[in-house]
């Protein structure tokens, strides 16, 4: 991250496009309806093969597994299920007529963890076999719900008294982004959140930051304090020299106008770092 003083696939899922089957032209479908047990041109009561649009085969073996998994969740909640099983439960809804365990495991193998699956960009999700645009979009929708829930936990609360919630929200919002983002949490005189805004989005290791623009926006919102946040896509939240110098410049720009910089938090997949906690500001 650097500071400046002046203002300033294709879908790999098989449901992409029309499908010609047994001499009949089938209308374009997304990958969810593609795996339905009955499709135009297929005999009723038979299931489409889970991997290719070739000869129909029986696909009923997974229904008992789905029922058992749902019952375990009802009885004991998420603590009774591994990450891939939770992902399976979600995929049951998105791909109703297919064994989703291989897809869930493939997603976790590709991205590493459940939060990383939900944080992955759509174009990378669709590189996983069995995941097309519709399923990828629905996964991103689930991620958006999670972010909104965490942000809702900060509403009308003193941010400095809810620091763990701030970190949790920032990690959910930024930890798995492929590019650097610089965001600002704007606070009122009671340190209640007024706004959370992404100021800049950069590359994998660089985001331009304009201190005067940050302070200008704080004045527009009548904010009396701010918290700076940005992510390191590398995963390592260790602050760089440029991060430290940029933070000090914003502090120096904001102080004469009565705006306090409470902290600068750096978010990474491997954790987070607080410049104030490290006594770097």
Descriptive report:
- Helices cover 38% and strands 16% of the residues.
- It is elongated.
- The protein has two domains: 139 residues, 5' to 3' exonuclease, C-terminal subdomain (DNA polymerase, domain 1), CATH 1.10.150; 118 residues, Cytidine Deaminase, domain 2.
- The two termini are 17 Å apart.
- The chain has 281 residues and is of the alpha/beta class.
- The protein has a five-stranded mixed β-sheet, with helices on both faces. A two-stranded parallel sheet has the order 1-6.
- It comes from Hoeflea ulvae.
Q: What is the CATH architecture term of the largest domain? A: Orthogonal Bundle
The CATH superfamily of the largest domain bears the name: 5' to 3' exonuclease, C-terminal subdomain
* Count of domain modules: 2
Q: How many runs of DSSP E, i.e. beta strands?
A: 9
Radius of gyration: 24 Å
